[in-house]
Amino acid sequence: MSDLETAAAKMFWVGFHGTTPSDDLMRLLDRGVGGVVLFARNIESPKQAAGLISQIKMHVRHPLPVAIDHEGGRVMRVQSPFTQTPPMRVLGKIDDEELVRDVGRVFARELRAVGFDMDFAPVLDVDTNADNPVIAGRSFGNDPELVTRMGMALMEGLQSEGMAACAKHFPGHGDTAEDSHRDLPRLSHSEDRLRCVELPPFESVCKAGVASVMISHVIYEAWDADFPATMSKPIIDGLLRRELGYGGLVISDDLEMKAIVDHYGVNRAVVMATAAGMDCLLACHSAQVMHGAIDTLIKAAGKDDALATMISKANRRVDFFNEHYTRDAMEAPDLSVIGCDEHKRIADRIFSHAECDGSADTTIDPTDTRRWRGS
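Request: output the structure for the sequence above.
Response:
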């Protein structure tokens, strides 16, 4: 493969189906993709997860981060015996920064034990729309100051244990009435409103050194009326990179979501996102889509020196991330920390608070509290 082909493939983080490395995944790894994302469909137990991640990492000769969505509540891709927690809305109601920091440490220790390098958390969306179908209880609350403090604490807990955090969904998905998995949300708020409500949590964690930021599939008319943040140079290069001064890893949300597929197409999106300053492109379901997107980016960059330069810059940020957060395969993982007594005590403190003030109800999250406990 040429240097350009290697560099372009390195920008892609991919998913696959099954609990063992599939042939589709192996072919993508052989192309040089830069990361892997696991879902509940891939995980049966801590031992199996550790073995799977080890197999994946051992197949390549380059550092390969493995990531997962592990937010608490209904967005936890690993279940018992991993320590279960309620959604972040419950922690926002408790309003105890040290407790949230402890939760971050619990998440990091247990995910690290099986080989994960990144947790796609914290959610920093400020939940100001009661009709929001996708964020809701995943958010710490509807107050930007509260979300900032709680999000900072979760990030600090995660990263204090060597787990890369990922602030999402920049610059804020909390006031949308549509789910970007199914449609393309659009926010018509003024820039002043966005800067006062949506932006403060992200601004704070960027200044504090969060390892990565995930960009939303949402159109923010005040900054870019034509394209979602995923594909927007004014938002990624202008707002995030230049204004906020963020130099860390910038990651797309899954490009196979309908907000992208139905309105722009994955191939167009990967080229525009790269040109806008994206470092990592997530495509987590179809191997055919992933191969096509890689081919498209290679072809486009071969004709556009400026795009090829953006790929090189993205690769440098990926290399820096890998130096700090990505580990090699573990030969003999120590799984004793998973669901240990110390972690159960931290979780029990949260459930006790939730039961006392009535937070553990379906208005916060549709997931039954028994599932939060892993029972």
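The longest strand covers residues 164-170.
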